Amino acid sequence: MRARQHRTRPPRPDRRVFAELTAPARGLLRGALAVQALASVTALLPYVGLWLIGRAAFGAAPPTTAVAGVILTAAASVLSLLLRLGAYWLSHRADLRVQRSVRNRVATRLSRIPLGWFGAGAGGRALESLQSDVEELHAAVAHGRMEVISAIVAPALALAWLLAVDWRLALIVVLPSIAVYFQQRWALSGAGERQRGVLVALTSLLTALGELIRELPTLRVARRGDGASTVFAASDAFRAAQSAAYERENRRSVAGGVIVDAVTTTALVIGFGALLVSSGTLAAIDLLPFALVAVTVANPLQEIATAQAGMRGARLAAERLRSLLETPVLPEPEQGAAPRGGEVTLDGVAFGYRADEPALRGIDLELRPGTITAVVGPSGAGKSTLAALIARFYDVDEGAVRIGGVDVRDMTGAELYRRVGFLLQRTRLVRTSIRDNIRLARPEAAEHEVIAAAKAARIHKRISALPKGYDSVAGVDLRPSGGEAQRIAIARLLLADPAVLLLDEPTANVDPDTEAQVQSALAELAAGRTVLIVAHRLPTITEADRIAVLDGGRITQLGTHEELLATAGVYRRMWQAYQTKEPVS
How far is CA 461 from CA 326, 464, 508, in A? Predict the structure, then answer.
C-alpha cells in the first residue's frame, strides 16, 4: 500500500519581525487605526438617518424625525469623509517614516558589509529587496490594517442593528458571507509564497536578458543562437510562476464573488424579507435597514480575507528585509589605530570563500613604500583575492594583513580607505558632475586641486573641451570611454592621496593609444606610494620592483622580471607562452 504523502505547509511568517520594522511609526499607526475606526462608525450613521426619514415617511415616527434624519445623514457623511482622509493621512505619514527607517538601516548595513559580498550578484538582490519588499510594506502599513479595521467596525455595528430589527433576516445576510470568508482564505492560501516565486522568476528572466544583450555580438558573429534559448526558458518559467500565482486564486475567488455580489445579496434579502412582510411577521418599514446595509455586512468578510493575504505578503517581505539587515558585517573598532607609514605586510595569510576550499594559503609578502610589486599567476591562482584582502573586502581566515604596522581589522573603515586606494579593470562613474566624481573622496577639495589632479591624470583637456566643462554629468553630458573613465578615476585617487595603491590591470580594456595615456597617468599616481599591481598581461609589469608569482593559492616565486626569467618555474613558462600566444593552464 502506498504511504499517504503529506504536503509540508510553508512556515507562517513571524509577526514580530514586521512589528519590529514598523516600530518607528507605531504611534502614528495606532492613531490612524483609531481615526479609521471612528470613520467607520460615522459611515454607518447616514444609513440610520435614511431609516429615520423612511419611518417618518411611512408614519411610523413623527415628521420631526425626518428633519433629524436629514441632519444626521448630511453631518455624518461629511464627518466620515474628513475622518477617512485624516486616517489615511496618518497611515501614509507612518508609511513614509517606515520606508525612511528601513532604507536608512539597510544603507547603514550595506556600508559595513564586506565589499566582496557585492561581487556575486548580492548588490542586485539587495536593490530588489529595497524596491519590491519595501513596496510590500507600503501596502500593509498604508492600507492593509486600515482596510481590516474598516471591514470590521462598521459591519459589526450594522450586524448588531440588523439583529435587533430581525434576527432571521440578519442570519440570511451573514451566513453566506461567513462561508465566503473561509472560501477566500482557502483561495488565497500560499499566495505570498507564489508571488515571491513570480519575483524570483522575473529576476532570472531579466538576468538572462542582460546576459543575452552582452553576448549578442559574439553570438551573432559565431552564428549561434544558444543565448536566446536561455531567455526562452526563463520566460517560460516566469509565465508558469505567474499562472501558479494568479490563476488558482482567480478560479477559486469567482464563486465567492458571485455569492456576495451586491445585487445577489440585496435580491436575497428583499426576497426573504418580502415573504416575512407578507406573512405579517415583519413590518414593511423594518425591511429598509436590510436593503440599506446588507451589502455592508456581506462584502467586508471577503475584503478581510484579501487584506490578510496582503498582510501575510508584507510579513514575508519583512522577513526578507530582516535577513538583509542581519547580513554579517565586518567588525570595526570604535576608535581604530592609526598606521605609521604605508608599508603593507601579509603574514601567514590564509583565506577561502568556502571553508573546505582555501583560495590562499601561507601568504607572506611585504610591500614597501616607493616600490611597485606585481602579482601574476595562472587564472584562478588568487591574484585578485590577495588584493581584496589588503583592501579588506574580506577578513582573512588565518594570519594578518597590516598597513603601517597596524592590522587592518584594528582600523576604522574611514581610516583604512584614507590609506588605501584601488583601481579596477572597469571603472564606473557616479551619475553626477565630473568635478564631484573627481572629489568623491574629498568633497571639500578646492577647484584648483581638482584641476591639478585632472591635469596629472591626463584628462583635463578632454573635460575642458566639453560644453559644460567640469559641470558635465557623467552618463548624460559625457559617456566616457574606458580610458577616459580610468583617467578620471586616477584623478580621483590623486586627489585622495592614499599611501597604498591596489591596481587590477587598469589598462586591460583600453586601446594601445589610450593605454599610453593611462600608463603615463599611473606613473604620476604611483610615485612615492606603495603599489600592488594585479597583472594579467606580463609586458605591463616588466619594470616592477618585484614580481610575486601565485600558483595554487601560494607564492611560489618572488623576484624581478630578469631574475624570474633566469629561473625555471611558472613565470618563465607564462612568459614563453605569452611570446607564443599560448595560454598557461
Answer: 47, 5, 23
**Helix (DSSP H) and strand (DSSP E) numbers for the chain:** 20, 10
Q: Output the nine-digit C-alpha cell for 403.
A: 598597513
> For residue 55, what is its C-alpha cell?
419611518
**384: CB partners within 8 A, 6+ apart:** 504, 534
Which residues, 6 or more positions from 180, have their beta carbon under 8 angstroms from its beta carbon?
256, 259, 260, 301, 302
Burial, 549: exposed, middle or buried (Cβ in 10 Å; 0-12, 13-18, 19+)? buried
Q: Class of the 344-580 domain? A: alpha beta
Q: pLDDT tens digit string along 271-328?
A: 888 888 888 888 888 888 888 887 777 667 667 767 777 777 788 788 888 877 887 7
Contact 43, 82 (CB under 8 A): no
Sheet of 344-354, strands arranged across: 357-367, 344-354, 398-403, 406-407
DSSP-derived pairing of the beta strands 500-504 and 420-423: parallel
- pLDDT digits 0-9 by tens, 77-95: 999 999 999 999 999 999 8
Task: Kindly report whether the global pTM for this prediction surpasses the value 0.70.
Answer: no
* Domain coordinates in residue numbering, the chain: 15-325, 344-580
Q: What top-level class would CATH report for the domain 15-325? A: mainly alpha
